[in-house]
Amino acid sequence: MEKKDEAHYLLKWIELNDKLVKKGFTWGSVEEDEDWHQYMSYDIHTYSQREIDRINRVTNKIGNVYNKMYHKLLDGSQESNVWKSQLGLPVHTWDAANVPSDFFSYFTRMDFIVNEDEIKLVEVNCDTPTGYIESSIVNQIICEEYGFVSPNKLEENIKRTWAIISKQYNLSNDDTVHFTSYGWHDEDRETVLFNLNNSGLHNTKFIAIEDIIVSDEGLFDQEGDRINFLYRLYPLEYLVDDKDSAGREIGLSFLQHIADGRVILINPPGAFLMQSKAVLALIWSLRDDSGIFSFEERESIRRHFLPTYLKGDFPFENEAYVAKPIYGREGGSVEIFDSFSKLVEKDEEDYYAEWQKVYQQYVEMPNKTVNTWDGEYSGKMLVGSFLIGGEASGLFLRVGEKITGNLSMFCPVAIEKW
């Protein structure tokens, strides 16, 4: 874009951003390394209804595969215990992760590489997925601004899902469901409040994770009310290291309360279990096992999963691959290697660097060029697809580098006009 076009773009961006801030979306730009980066793009990417339906079908099929694998992992057999030992869960989370639920995760986002008719699963974010507000409120407003129709249905499926949760956990109108995240983190807090406001529940209360009182008897809020049901946007692996100001290991107590049933978690602990990327390797290794998966499920695995392995099974010779920490988030500590096993791309986040890794076949994401306040930006597009209450519910597109990190840009999506 020329300078005058960049100025026009920026004015429009500010207009849209101001409108969205009033709706709770306050991270249209993000500060990192003492500089501001654009996160929200308003260039709309369109898919035909046929393409959207295909992504939705794949999302539902993979959800079924994951749920099948989840219940196999919890069936108590010797085989399942061996499989669980390969997932790399921190030891202190084992008891909590074994708490059963009907469905492995009520709120999930799958990340796909979509190249025309080919849809490949990169990973499954089933423990603490984000992107709801972008895919609902932001996507809807930008689509309306330019006369497009959004394909996303997050709000109605969130309400439907909480009705399912209420039935499965025997929630009554007198029960209070607490919702938690970091209180200081705008994106996490507003994402949780979005879920709360669309839940349709009678009694809800938001509490910052840092304000939860952990005692020997259980969890309590600041008013002294016991927390019996807790929706959390907070990774369970963080609890392993959490201490209070006196050095007391309250995170370990928190995990024990989960394991002992003193608090019921939503998403359930099974979502943390299945968040391990080692599950991708496990499912790939069992892709031909008719004793676990149906014919249709085996076909879905072969067609849509990327070959993924643990180090002991490392098979990649003469082809590019990706090394990923099993619990890495936002591209943290991901490495890309070429066909000669030479490192060509690396995320410098070191929090997850020491975690066990999986090794996945590298597939190039499609190119996508969007306008920004600095001119045109050409990056790689990753397609997120929400599975809410077991049903495909909306798309979440991001454009960034070869490793989709924290500074990738949200790109709105719409149904293609005829």
Automatic annotation (TrEMBL):
It holds the Pfam family GSP_synth. Residues 18-415 form the Glutathionylspermidine synthase pre-ATP-grasp-like domain. Coiled coil: none annotated. One of its GO terms (molecular function) is ligase activity. SUPFAM superfamilies: Glutathione synthetase ATP-binding domain-like (SSF56059), PreATP-grasp domain (SSF52440). Keywords: ATP-binding, Ligase, Magnesium, Metal-binding, Nucleotide-binding. This is Glutathionylspermidine synthase pre-ATP-grasp-like domain-containing protein. The keyword Repeat does not apply. InterPro entries: GSPS_pre-ATP-grasp-like_dom, PreATP-grasp_dom_sf.
